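INTERNAL AUDIT FORM
Audit reference: QA-55
Scope: verify that the stored structure record matches its stored sequence.
Auditor: D.O.
Record contents follow.
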Amino acid sequence: MATGLSGAGPVQALLGGRVRLRQPATGLGAGLDAVMLAASVEAPAGGVVLDAGCGAGAVFLCVLARLPGVRAVAVERDPELAALARGNAAMNGWSDRVEVIEGDVAEGALREGLPPCAAAVSNPPYWSGGSRPPARLRAGATHAGDLGLDAWASLLAAALGRGGRASMVLPAARLEEGLVALRRAGLGGTEVMPLWQRQGRAAKRVLLRAARTPRAPNRLLPGLVLHGEAGWTPAADAVLRGAALGWAAG
C-alpha cells in the first residue's frame, strides 16, 4: 500500500493490534503520548474529533479504534506526513471516517472550514526553543520554532462545539505555559492529569483538558502511574490495550 513517504518504516501495532501504523523511519515515532492523549478523548456517537498536528495519524487512529461511532478531522502542515496519515487511515479501513487537511495551525483561514467538534486534541512539538535535531521530520515533532502553545490552544478552542473539550499532552516542564495558553484561548476549568513514571517519581508528562468555562478553577487530578516493579502498571496496561483514560478525580 502506498504511504506517501518513501522513508516510512515498518508497520507497527498500537492498542494491542487494533491499530496498524507506519511512521517515518527518520522521524520521531509516536508512542505513549499519542495513546494516552487518544485514551483521554470523550465524544458521543456521531461526534467529530479534531487532531491538530496529526503527524502520521497515531492519535486519531487510536481515537477511531476506541470510539467506532465518531469521525476525525486532522490537520498536518507537512505534505509527506499528511499523505502518510491518509495511507494509515486507509490501511486500517477508516478512510471514510477521517479527513486530513494540509495546513498550519496558525492559519486563521483554516478554522473557518472546521465542523463543530466534540473534542479537539493536540500533541504539539515538545519545545519552543533549543537545539533542533538535524532530521527535518524529527525537528518538526520536537521543536516548534516561533510557534508557541497559544496557536495550538487557539485552534483547539475555535473547533469546539457546545460542550466540547480541548486536550493537550505536554512535558511537565511546560505545564504553566499550557495553562496560560488555554486560558488565553478562552478556555478554563482545566483538568491536569500527571503521568507519573513510577510511584514517588516526578511526572515527565501531563495531560490538560479544558472547556469553554474561562472563569472556572483548575483541578489537579490523581493521574496515572505508568510503571511498577514488573513493568506497566495494570491501569497503564489497560489504557495501552484500548481502555479509556477516565477524568474522574477518584
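Auditor finding: record pair retrieved intact. The helical segments are 32-39, 58-66, 79-91, 108-112, 136-142, 149-159, 175-184, 234-240.
Action required: none
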